[in-house]
Design a protein that fits this description.
Blueprint (H helix, E strand, L loop, with lengths): L1 E6 L20 E5 L5 E4 L5 H10 L6 E5 L5 H4 L14 E7 L6 H7 L16 E7 L2 E5 L2 E7 L7 E7 L2 E6 L23 H10 L4 E5 L18 H10 L4 E5 L7 H14 L6 E4 L5 E3 L28 E5 L3 H11 L5 E5 L2 H11 L3 E5 L7 H9 L4 H4 L3 E5 L4 H9 L4 E4 L4 H17 L5
Parallel strand pairs: 3-4, 4-5, 5-6, 10-11, 11-12, 12-13, 15-16, 15-17, 17-18, 18-19
Antiparallel strand pairs: 1-2, 1-14, 2-3, 7-8, 8-9, 9-10
The structure holds zinc ion (2 copies).
One zinc ion (ZN) binds next to loops.
Length: 446
């Protein structure tokens, strides 16, 4: 498996003398498996040079799979400039998480409308197929792909690619779930307490290479909470806990010049000293070879198997919002109503239980601190119900508490996840989609 970085920058392209070593183009990574399968991870401005290189290679027709983490600008701006899409006979399959609003094809067409770009999506000459994903697994040629939701204020997927006994994981635009802040200096943290962070570690487990969001430093992070990106130091901690061999820091902040990025790498290496993890900052043009041990003959089937979204309509989901603060209920209602959900609300624990038993919601967003029965108590009562709809319903606690002990107490009581106040509407939207999608897939569906 050969991996090449064509764009390593996050948020905004930043070309110029101060970013010349690590590069100024936004996210785009080429993966070529030993069987010839071409996978392109994200299509930021780096895709421009990748496209030119593919065309110059003389390969005809060019066939590839474009796996988008999500459709924020820095991950799709290279799409209309990706030359192979303009050549008849070429074939591309484009994959991204199924959102709630428009289809993937329409989202990509949006940035190519007449007001923004001279060529429309429909005028591209290559054959392009669009696939909307949920969490799950599928095969592209000899590459086994696992898709997993990330924590970002836009619905995003990370991808784990395995072929010939080697594994690489691409997780950019992801923020740790726990708000518990480790010490600024010192060595790496122990295994995470938050269940969602534990899932993240499982997703990275044993990889030969992890390309991880590392937009901020731990020092900068407190002012960037909920922006959906990781401090580099915590990417190191996750990689160490997951037993990863090599860690590529990725999605470099547009404000971080080459010299500053060198310093980030240095402090990350210090944090992991003696632990056998190779840490570097991904640089545009850099190539990494992971030697596949057992290769599969070229031309193997390329049909995705199971991760294609099931297309369940949003209107079918009922969400119960419980908070004694009317402002929070109003904010959640304003955020979720346009998505087409059926919303119910309550202002205390007893009313919440009554409504839950009568209406069997698909999801509860539940305040921790309420007069009378608090959120933890409501969750414990639901988990003790014999009705499987109530016993298994996802319960997400809304809380201002961030301590590791509080987090652990919540998971012991059976909560599915946490949202820490204050939160952003975009974050709530993408998380609600994740919880509902996992509920539909069932407990074994991920
Ligand atoms: Zn990004
Ligand atoms: Zn993003």
């Amino acid at each position: 498996m050969r991996i090449r970085f064509w764009g390593t920058r996050g948020s905004l392209a930043k070309p110029g003398p101060s970013t010349i070593r690590y590069g100024g183009n936004t996210s785009c990574v080429e993966v070529r498996a030993a069987d010839g399968t071409l996978i392109i991870l994200d299509c930021g401005t780096g895709a421009h040079d990748l496209g030119r290189s593919l065309v110059a290679s003389g390969e005809r027709p060019i066939r590839g799979h474009l796996l988008l983490t999500h459709t924020h600008w820095d991950h799709i701006q290279g799409f209309p400039f990706f030359a192979p899409l303009f050549i008849p006979g070429n074939e591309f399959d484009v994959y991204a998480a199924q959102g709630l609003g428009q289809r993937l094809e329409d989202t990509l067409a949006g940035q190519m409308e007449y007001e923004y770009f001279p060529v429309t999506l429909g005028q591209l000459d290559a054959t392009i197929r669009y696939h909307e994903l949920s969490e799950g697994v599928f095969d592209l040629g000899a590459v086994h792909v696992t898709a997993r939701y990330l924590n970002h204020p836009g619905l995003a997927l990370g991808y784990r690619l395995e072929a010939g006994g080697v594994t690489m994981v691409y997780v950019t635009d992801h923020e740790p779930h726990s708000r518990h802040q480790p010490e600024l200096t010192g060595s790496a943290q122990m295994a995470p307490v938050h269940h969602e962070d534990q899932r993240h570690v499982e997703f990275l487990a044993g990889a030969d290479l992890v390309i991880h969001d590392a937009q901020y430093t731990l020092e900068e992070y407190p002012s960037k909470l909920t922006w959906g990106h990781s401090p580099a130091e915590l990417a190191v901690d996750f990689a160490l806990t997951a037993g990863v061999k090599r860690l590529a820091l990725f999605h470099h902040d547009p404000l971080r010049d080459d010299v500053a990025l060198d310093r980030v790498v240095e402090s990350c290496r210090l944090r992991a000293v003696g632990r056998g993890l190779d840490i570097f900052a991904a640089a545009e043009g850099q190539t990494i070879e992971l030697a596949e041990r057992d290769t599969v003959a070229p031309g193997a089937a390329t049909q995705p198997k199971t991760a294609i979204a099931k297309g369940v309509e949003a209107e079918s989901a009922t969400i119960l919002l419980v908070d004694d603060d009317p402002d929070i209920v109003r904010l959640l209602t304003m955020t979720l109503r346009p998505e087409g959900y059926r919303l119910l609300s309550a202002t205390d624990g007893n009313a919440a239980l009554e409504i839950a038993r009568a209406e069997r919601p698909d999801l509860l967003l539940l305040d921790w601190n309420m007069p009378g029965r608090d959120g933890l108590e409501v969750c414990r009562i639901l988990r003790a119900e014999s009705d499987p709809d109530l016993h298994n319903v996802p319960v997400v606690l809304l809380t201002a508490q961030v301590g590791a002990e509080d987090t652990a107490a919540g998971f012991t009581a059976g909560v599915t996840d946490y949202v820490t106040k204050p939160f952003k509407p975009t974050h709530i939207r993408s998380r609600v989609h994740t919880w509902l999608s996992r509920k539909r897939a069932g407990p074994e569906g991920t």
